[in-house]
Amino acid sequence: MTSAKPNTLEALRTRIGQQGEQLTPRMRDAASYAMEHPNDIALNPVAAVAKLSGIAAAAFIRLAQALGFEGYSDLQRLFRAPLQQAAKPTHSERIRHFGGELSLDHPEDPAAVLQAFSQANIVSLQHLQADAAALPLKQAIAMLQGARIVHVMGLRRSYALAAYFAYALNRVKQPAVHITAQGGSVAEQASVANDQDVLVAISFPPYAEDTLKVCAQARQQGAQLLVITNGVLSPLAKNADLVLEVNDAELKGFRSLTSALCLVQTLAMGIAFGKRSKPGRPGRGGKKAGRAAGAAADSAELLDLGTIDC
Fold first, then answer.
1. Residue 24, by phi and psi: left (phi above 0), alpha (psi -120 to 50) or beta?
2. Is the four-CA dihedral 240, 235, 54, 16 of positive or negative sign?
C-alpha cells in the first residue's frame, strides 16, 4: 500500500531517497531533474518540462504516481507552493549551472571565461545559502566530533576537497586521515576504519568506483558513513548515515569546487568553535578573579582559532 504523498519538498526529497532503488532509470533521471530545477516543474506543463530536460513526459508522470501523487499536475502543486508563499523565487533559473548550460560567447577570451564562470559560481553559492537551513549540518558536526578517527576519501575532482578536509580536521584537533588510494592501496588504507570511526566520502558524477567500494568496505567494518554528493539519488547515498547535498557550477564540462569547499570549511569551523573553552567559574579569588580568568581563557582560545590556518 502506498504511503501518504509528501506535503513538502523536503519530504519529497526524503521519499525519493527512500524509493530510489525501486524507480526505473528514466524515473530517477526525472527525479534528479525535478529536484535540481524546481522552478521548471512549478511553472511548466509536463510537455514543456520534457523538452527542457530531454526526458520523456511519461517518466515524470510515472514518477509522480510512484511517489504517491495522482499525476504530474498533483506533483506540480507541491513545487508551486514555495513560489506562492514567497515574494520572489528562491532560486535563480537564469543560469542553469547544474547542467552546464551557461552560454559562453567568447571562449577564446580568458577574461570572458572567468566572468562567466564567476557568475555561475555566484549562483551555486546562492543555492547553497538558500538551502543551508535544510542541511543536517549540526548532525554532521556531531558525528565527526564523536569519531575516534575521521577517514576522508575523494578521488578525481573530489581529491582536492578530501585533501583539504583531512588537513583542516587535523588543524582543529579532530584526528583525520586522508585515503589517497596511492599505489593502488585503497582497500588497505580503508581497512583500519572501525566502529568508532567515520568515513567521509566525497564524490560527484561520474562517481569514482573506488569511492563506492570503500563506502561498502567501511560499512562492513562498522564505521559510520557521512556522504557529500550531489543528491539523494547518488549511489553513495544508498547506505549513508547522513547525506550533505551540494551542487557546484559547471561550464562546458569544467565543474567548480566552490560550493563544496564552502561546505567542508563550514564543517571544520563548526568543530573548531565547538572546541572553544567555556568561561572559568569563580574560584577562591572571588567573582572578579573568576571573570578575569574566564576572559583570559576565552581570549587565548580565540587567538588559537585565529592561528589555525584553515
1. beta
2. negative
pTM of the model: 0.71
Please report, as a single letter, which amino acid is at residue 122.
I
Helix residue ranges, H only, 97-240: 110-131, 137-145, 159-171, 186-190, 209-220
Query: DSSP readout, 226-271?
Result: EEEES-TTSGGGTT-SEEEE----EETTEE--HHHHHHHHHHHHHH
Partners of 179 in beta bridges: 153
Closest CA to 228 of 202, 249, 247, 254: 202
The CA distance from 226 to 165, in Å, is 13
Taking the C-alpha atoms of 238, 244, 250 and 255 in order, what is their torsion angle to the nearest 10 degrees? -80
The pLDDT tens digits for 150-174 are 999 999 999 999 999 999 999 999 9
Average pLDDT over residues 41-45: 88
**Own/partner pairs, 47-54, CB within 8 angstroms, 24+ separation:** 53/29
Write out the CATH class of domain 9-85: mainly alpha
CATH 3.40.50.300 fits 133-273, yes or no: no
Q: Which of 6-15, 33-42, 68-77, 285-294 has the highest mean pLDDT?
A: 68-77
Question: Across the chain, what does the average pLDDT equal?
Answer: 82
Q: Which residue carries 561546505 as its cell?
A: 263
SS3 of residue 108 by DSSP: coil
SS3 content of the chain, % helix, strand, coil (to 5): 55, 10, 35
Element (H, E) at 198: strand 198-202
